[in-house]
Amino acid sequence: MRGLGDLYLQQLKTGLATMLQYRGSLVIWLIGNVLEPLIYLVVWSTVSRSTGGTVGGYGARDFAAYYIVLMLVNQVTFSWVMYEFDYRIREGTFSADLLHPLHPIHADIAENLSSKAVSLPFMIAAAAGLSVVFHPVFRLSPLAAAAFVPALVLAFLVRFLVDWTVALAAFWTTRVSAINQIHYMAVLFFSGQIAPLAVLPRPLQVAANILPFRWTVGFPVELLLGRVTGPRILAGFAVQGAWLLAGALLVRYVWRASVKRYSAVGA
Fold first, then answer.
1. For a Cys-Cys bond, which of 18, 114, 170, 234 suits 86, CB 3.0-4.6 Å?
2. Burial of residue 2 (number of CB atoms within 10 Å: 0-12, 13-18, 19+)
3. Are the C-beta atoms of residues 211 and 56 closer than 8 Å to each other?
4. 58 in helix, strand or coil?
5. Could you tell me which residues come within 8 angstroms of residue 61 by beta carbon, excluding any fewer than 6 positions away?
6. pTM
7. What values do phi and psi take at 160, rounded to 5?
8. Domain edges within the chain
9. How far apart are CA 241 and CA 237, in angstroms?
10. For the segment 108-159, what is each residue's pLDDT rounded down to a tens digit?
11. CA-to-CA distance for 148 and 78, rounded, in angstroms?
């Protein structure tokens, strides 16, 4: 455990130094993370005003609150590991990772956390600015606030494990852009990023409740906004826990099968 703690600490330091070294690319990436939910916010706020009321129980200011919180939740739970795996295998850099005494997933988690430590203050500042412009309505309750943090932690873990499992497809094919794109579109639709799940057709809502994506983004957002209450909170935690277990098992078994197929194709 001490070795694992030292690894995370050292990786966090290295990740922070790397992020600060490439400040320009970091700023561009963060601007993109703000623009996407901002576009959805403007679109759905306009739709709400044009109908003269609400859409799926959301008014213009409710949409503002939803997308501002979603922007922060998505920043905390997002990972890019599946976009790097094929490169690491094609270039042969993954060979060194396999020689380390600890599972490579720990280094990836630590690197992801370091990027969040650098980027989150910027995103919080952006959320504050958007709040001034769009005047969101937050209906925060003490229960929702208390449940939000553990829900967010579980959301990050579930999303990372699912993303890491998808990334392992690179062991079977070194060109995984199509797989990544399909996964990205599934996340957009079923996590509540394109629109709150309440405004989607009923079949899509049912699918979202079954798939893991809602529980990695939409559930913490709805929870903080007071749209998930009572027994539904406990049910949400139960589903997150089930997907966390499923994700851990998937990583374990798919990883074992993947390593058997590994061959570096780069220098």
1. 170
2. exposed
3. no
4. strand
5. 134, 135, 136, 137
6. 0.89
7. -65, -40
8. 2-261
9. 6
10. 888 888 888 888 888 999 999 999 999 998 888 888 889 999 999 999 999 9
11. 17
